[in-house]
Structures are given as structure tokens and as C-alpha cells.
Specification:
Shape: elongated
Structural class: alpha+beta
Keywords: Membrane, Signal, Transmembrane, Transmembrane helix
Helix content: 55-70%
Radius of gyration: 18 Å
CATH topology of the largest domain: Glutaredoxin
Organism: Kribbella orskensis
Protein name: Glutaredoxin
Distance between the termini: 35 Å
InterPro entries: Glutaredoxin (IPR002109), Grx-like_ET (IPR051548), Thioredoxin-like_sf (IPR036249)
Signal peptide: 1-20
Strand content: 5-15%
Order of helices and strands: HHHEHEHEEH
Largest sheet: 4 strands, mixed
CATH superfamily of the largest domain: Glutaredoxin
Length: 139
């Protein structure tokens, strides 16, 4: 929803620049807003699974679970810093899974602060991306 809103706002801003006689500015705005929409889109993240599925898989193979939500600037920062290593963790969207939101609230003392990472049974709230990157590389 947020990505769609950003995209539509970008198109409107670009169209107003083109209508005002500045097509170059319109193109720049369109490209900038499209890039921003892509960053906040759930499509920029690995496919989300349910909290129950992530917990089961993590128990089986020891991979990290990353609880996130679309539009979260800290989640975007973590995703960008991890790069391809992001696929070595299980991503759970707390806005689509009430059980995931409850798990995050249990970890954070009642808040839905994301990203919250559970790695080797140890939860971390808004972890240092470089530290998590090193942990994922070690796996």
C-alpha cells in the first residue's frame, strides 16, 4: 500500500512538472519516486513466511528469523546492508501475521519494534546490520 501511494504521488508530481513545461524534471521525479517505491515495497525483501513456519525451519537448520514490516526505514537499511545474504534468513512480515506481531511484542516488552532478529535463540532488536552480516557469513 505504501509503495503504491509513493508511486502514485511520484506520477502526479512528474505529470505536474511535464504540464508546467519541464519534462526533464518530470522524468527525474518519476525515476526518483519509482526507486523510492521499490525500496519500501515488500517485493524488495525475500518472500515472507509465517512465524510458525520460520520458527520450525529455524529449529531445523539454525537460520536467523528477521521480523519486519513494509515501510520501516530500519528494515530497509538492514535489507540493503545484507544484500544477497538476506536470503540466508527467514523474513516474517508482522503486518500479515498476527502471531509474528505477538512474538515481537513478547521480545520487545510490548512494542512492535522491527527489525527484530532471532538468531541462535537470542533475540536482537534493531541489530547492527554489519554484525548480522558477519553472523550470516559465518553460516
Amino acid at each position: 500500500m505504501l509503495a503504491g501511494l509513493v508511486f502514485v504521488c511520484g506520477l502526479l508530481a512528474a505529470a505536474s512538472q511535464v504540464a508546467a513545461g519541464s519534462p526533464g524534471s518530470g522524468v527525474v521525479l518519476a525515476v526518483a519516486f519509482c526507486a523510492l517505491a521499490a525500496l519500501v515495497s515488500p517485493l524488495a525483501f525475500p518472500r515472507s513466511i509465517t512465524a510458525a513456519e520460520a520458527q520450525q525451519r529455524s529449529t531445523d537448520d539454525g537460520r536467523a528469523i528477521i521480523y519486519w514490516r513494509p515501510g520501516c526505514q530500519y528494515c530497509i537499511r538492514l535489507r540493503l546492508k545484507l544484500g544477497r545474504l538476506a536470503r540466508r534468513a527467514y523474513w516474517v512480515n508482522i503486518w500479515t501475521d498476527p502471531e509474528a506481531a505477538a512474538a515481537v511484542r513478547a521480545i520487545t516488552g510490548g512494542n512492535e519494534t522491527v527489525p527484530t532478529v532471532v538468531y541462535a535463540g537470542h533475540p536482537q532488536v534493531n541489530p547492527d546490520p554489519d554484525q548480522l552480516r558477519r553472523q550470516l557469513l559465518a553460516d
